[in-house]
Amino acid sequence: MSMLAAESAEVALLVPASLLAAGLVLIAAEFFLPTVILGFLGAVVSFAGIYLSASAGAGVCALFSAIFVVALALEFFAFRRFLPHTAIGRSMINSSSNAGTAVPAAAGYAIYVGKAAVASTALAPSGTIEIEGVLVEAFSLDGFVDRGAAVIVTEAAAGRVAVRRVR
User: Fold this and answer.
1) Does the pLDDT at position 106 exceed 60?
2) How confident is the model over 112-136, as a mean pLDDT?
3) Strands 116-119 and 160-165
4) Angle, alpha carbons 115-117-119 (nearest 5°)
5) Is 160 helix (H, G, I), strand (E, B) or coil?
6) Is the peptide bond before 16 cis (omega within 30 degrees of 0)?
7) Fewest beta carbons within 10 Å, which of 13, 57, 112, 167?
8) Looking at residues 115-138, what average pLDDT do you find?
9) CA distances in angstroms from 12 to 45, 52, 150, listed in the order given
């Protein structure tokens, strides 16, 4: 009779364990198919498995809860770490670089202070200048400056320089 009771207990835990595993699989699928539905459904199914495991005792329920928390944390960290390196992950994550297009720091333009340049566009009062073959956003401290006018760089700021007309 005791052997039959042991088999019955194992069978009784098969359903909660299966629900817990199925819920974790649904939560994992949420990383690949981002919808709220799969994650929510996975949580509900996992919690149902944990709830049903309580019939075997508080210790078993605590074990199922701990397994859920640890497996969920491992899923999260594994997908966070490895997903960006997969083809699916690269298609879901914007990993493009802004190299060369981001706003340069003021220190990058400090080398132009005191140098002469030519207004590539009308500065009214801001526009573009060409200095040493490089196009740079500029702000005219003298107000409007015609296109093609000679200017001198007086200050460097983040993303642009300040200029004055050459008189």
Assistant:
1) no
2) 93
3) unpaired
4) 150
5) strand
6) no
7) 167
8) 93
9) 17, 9, 87
pTM of the entire predicted model: 0.49
Does residue 140 sit in helix, strand or coil?
strand
- Tell me the Cα Rg of the chain: 32
User: Is residue 127 predicted with pLDDT exceeding 50?
Assistant: yes
CB count within 10 Å of CB 134 equals 10
Whole-angstrom distance, CA of residue 89 vs CA of residue 98 = 19
To 10 degrees, what angle do helices 58-82 and 36-53 make?
150
| 3-class secondary structure, 59 | helix
Question: Could you tell me the domains of the chain?
Answer: 2-92 (no CATH), 106-165 (2.40.50.140)
pLDDT averaged over every residue in the chain: 84
The confidence band for 21, taking pLDDT boundaries of 50, 70 and 90, is: very high
Higher pLDDT among residues 144 and 78, named by residue:
144
Instruction: Tell me the C-alpha distance between 40 and 35, whole Å.
Output: 9
The CA distance from 26 to 20, in Å, is 10
What pLDDT score was predicted for residue 76?
A: 86
Give 105's contacts (C-beta < 8 A, 6+ positions apart).
Answer: 158
